[in-house]
Write a structure and sequence with these properties.
Blueprint: E1 2-10, E2 17-20, H1 22-32, E3 37-43, E4 48-53, H2 57-70, H3 88-97, E5 100-106, E6 109-110, E7 117-122, E8 129-137
Antiparallel strand pairs: 1-8, 2-7, 3-5, 3-8, 4-7, 5-6
This protein binds zinc ion.
Zinc ion is lined by residues 81, 85, 87, 91.
Length: 138
Amino acid sequence: MRSFRKELTFHTPTRRAFINITPQVEAALKESGIREGLCLVNAMHITASVFINDDESGLHRDFERWLEKLAPEKPYEQYDHNGYEDNADAHIKRAIMGRECVAAVTAGKLDFGTWERIFYGEFDGKRDKRVLIKIIGE
Ligand code: ZN
């Protein structure tokens, strides 16, 4: 069995963002040379997510509104975590949207359904944040 590891870095200009990172993951898979196996992609920060869903801007606005209803950013003082930091909402949003995704690798490609794409979900941006790609197989 072979394994391949790569980190991606994102720095969003806004506090929150959804970024389709499927092209970067596909490039990593190609670089790995692995044809059959599994591909793990995870956020390396506890205020960001990696998830699989549709690349449709209306849906992304729906996610943003839904997450703001569940864990509104403001007022900051509503959260016990805030004080030294102001990102309690970002921790909760990450918990809802998840840490990672795993995709099957078949014949050298991500074995996805028609509309599945991989997204990086940023909830406390404006700084460098890392995503790990780990691919195992042969
Ligand atoms: Zn925090």
